[in-house]
Amino acid sequence: MRIGGAWLNYPGTQALCAVLGLAGHRVLFVGGCVRNTLMLMPVTDIDLATDAVPEVVAEVAKAAGFKVIPTGIDHGTVTVIAGGIHHEITTFRSDVETDGRRAVVSFSRNLAEDAARRDFTMNALYAEPSGEIVDPLGGLPDLLAHRVRFVGEPEQRIREDYLRILRFFRFHAVYGDPAQGIDAEGLAACAALADGVDGLSRERIGAEMRKLLAARNPAPALASMAASGVLQHVLPGADPRAIAPLCHLEADSPPRWQRRLAVLGGEDPGPHLRLSRQEQAEIGKIAEAIGSPFTPAALAWKLGETPGADVVLARAALLETPVPPGWRSDLGRGAGSKFPISAADLMPSLQGEALGTKLKELEGRWLSSDLKLTRAALLA
Ligand code: ATP
Ligand code: MG
């Protein structure tokens, strides 16, 4: 069986495969590009696997005029820019020694060995430069059945790298089948080894959680994370129960991880997920406004249209209420509104602190009126 995808036929990509092939090396696409093409999902990066050692990949690619970056040469990865596209080329390898985070690797000539060190069967799917699929571990039937399954024995694979706990839930969120449920053996292993999450860097946890929360429907994965005790290690106090109603209410609104995170609640996610200041401020504002009395128009005026929508949806999910009728057009109305009073309207009779207090009071009245009180009514 062959896959097709525009990325497969990029001239630079095909040229790179051709020069490695002509030099006598095996080279195959692997991971996300193969998996996502089969799932009709966008391909964001191109990963390749080869039997050539990294120094040789670099030499051959340079000789062909491509730019080479030694991204992670000790782990076998070089980045080759061909036709303006980045290709991560990793030498077939097996992980000989692991400490739960980093691996000592040994390069291999053998594709089966390379497949065995990968995390899930759906991530051990390869394709020849022609698009012909190579599936050493039965990843294709698993992918088509939306089954996220560890390669090998789950507990052993998690002990090698505890990030795989979070990757298991992330891949289930994105590719899993909610009706079929999560792989029981994988889930049991995650539950038994949940403590291992504490040893991971908070950047890596945050990166996984952003991707998980941005899935179309992360509710089943989050429920399993909570049931297995993993979620408490990621974000203490988080409660995923409102996520399913949230996803239902979102309907065709684009998923936003910030909104889902605000609904999870729990401790301040800033340090736990190593959020940027800007992300922290945005999520803080959404979370704070959920309990406020502001209407959709008032929310959009105060926070902007997108965070305003986040609050309306989050509030409805958490309070188990329907979204207010006409909320979308109200958000637009609020975002386009201008507070009708300026300082000049109140001067010179009010000055300094008194002026500031009056302006705040009028703004509060205007917001409570759903932005409907006119300038005249406010000044009367
Ligand atoms: P995406 O790029 O969409 O997140 P991907 O599958 O391409 O998905 P990468 O992080 O680019 O993910 O990794 C490429 C491949 O490397 C994966 O498909 C998998 O085979 C392997 N891999 C990545 N991280 C791990 C890990 N922690 N343990 C084992 N294999 C891994
Ligand atoms: Mg990738």
Structure description:
The structure is a single chain. This protein is an alpha+beta fold. Strands 3-4-5-2-1-8-9 form a 7-stranded mixed sheet. Strand 6 and strand 7 form a beta hairpin. Helix 7 packs antiparallel against helix 10, helix 15 crosses helix 17 and helix 16 runs parallel beside helix 18. The longest helix is centred in the C-terminal third of the chain and has 17 residues. The mean pLDDT is 96. Bound molecules: adenosine-5'-triphosphate and magnesium ion (MG). The site of adenosine-5'-triphosphate (ATP) has 13 residues, from helix 7.
Quick overview of this protein structure:
Strand 4 and strand 5 (85-91) form a beta hairpin. Helix content is 49%, strand content 11%.
Features:
single chain; 380 residues; alpha+beta; cca-adding enzyme, domain 2; Methane Monooxygenase Hydroxylase, Chain G, domain 1; 4 domains; binds adenosine-5'-triphosphate; binds magnesium ion
> Which ligands accompany this protein?
adenosine-5'-triphosphate, magnesium ion
Number of domains: 4
Major sheet: 7 strands, mixed
Which structural class do the helices and strands define? alpha+beta
Widest sheet, order of strands: 3-4-5-2-1-8-9
Order of helices and strands: HEHEHEEEEEHEEHHHHHHHHHHHHHHHHH
CATH level 4 superfamily of the largest domain: Beta Polymerase, domain 2
Q: Count every helix, treating DSSP H or I runs of 4 or more residues as helices.
A: 21
CATH architecture of the largest domain: 2-Layer Sandwich
Q: What is the overall silhouette?
A: elongated
- Cα-atom Rg, whole angstroms? 26 Å
Number of strands: 9
Binned strand content: 5-15%
CATH fold-level topology of the largest domain: Beta Polymerase, domain 2
The helix content, as a percent range, equals 40-55%
Give the terminus-to-terminus CA distance. Answer: 76 Å
Low-confidence stretches: none
Average pLDDT score: 96
The level 1 CATH classification of the largest domain is Alpha Beta
